[in-house]
Amino acid sequence: MAHPRLGLVPPLKFIPLAEDAGLMKELTTWVLNEALTQCAQWRSSGRTLAVSVNVTATNLLEEGFTGLVVELLEKNSFRAPRCSSRSPRRASSLTSPDRRRSSKSCATGIIVSIDDFGAGFTSLAYLSSLAVGELKLDRGFITGLGTEGKERDLELVRATIQLGHDMRLRVVAEGIEDVDTLDLLSDLGCDRAQGYFISRPMPANLLAFKSDLAKIPVGVA
Q1: Taking 90 as the threshold, does the pLDDT of residue 211 lie above it?
Q2: Is there a contact between 185 and 173 (Cβ–Cβ < 8 Å)?
């Protein structure tokens, strides 16, 4: 988020403040609407893309969140949900009723992705208790993967990809910064990849005019 005086403020700085101030619902509503509006514009120009939106556990487990998503989808003329991504940060207080509600929220076809898997509050328990469809491997395991001293990380990544596939989950690797890491993850069977090697973050209008998005290879997130 760009601030006129502070400059670029990362999510880890402003999201906790928004949660403490009770503003997460309003903030998430705005982000979802912006993302779906942009996705609808891409589709109207012939570029069929799925969109991932990071939400906090506070959002995901809030009563009415599913209805909000469906409402915004219908507003932007989407027949069915595509993809909704969540971050597990500050999610250590999930209760059994919360987990049931989060699973129910996916009944519309929304894919729930566990972000930064393997770091922070992520837990193997989520794989059995939440309606998860995707794992995103934390960049801490990916950076420098395959170099000397990273042998244990390599085995962890290999095992996590296998676990994800055994559970019929899509696995995404974050933080790919060179072709060697991309090739290694491809050999390990990782489904999708993201990172600066593929593309740095950019405004939607620049992405739309930078290349023919419809020709982006499957497997690049």
Answers
A1: no
A2: yes
Closest CA to 93 of 102, 80, 105: 102
pLDDT tens for residues 92-124?
344 444 444 455 445 455 788 888 787 765 567
pTM score, two decimals? Answer: 0.75
**Residue 187 has which token pair?**
């050999």
Q: Is residue 96 within 8 Å of residue 128, measured between CB atoms?
A: no
- Structure tokens given for 113: 């992705």
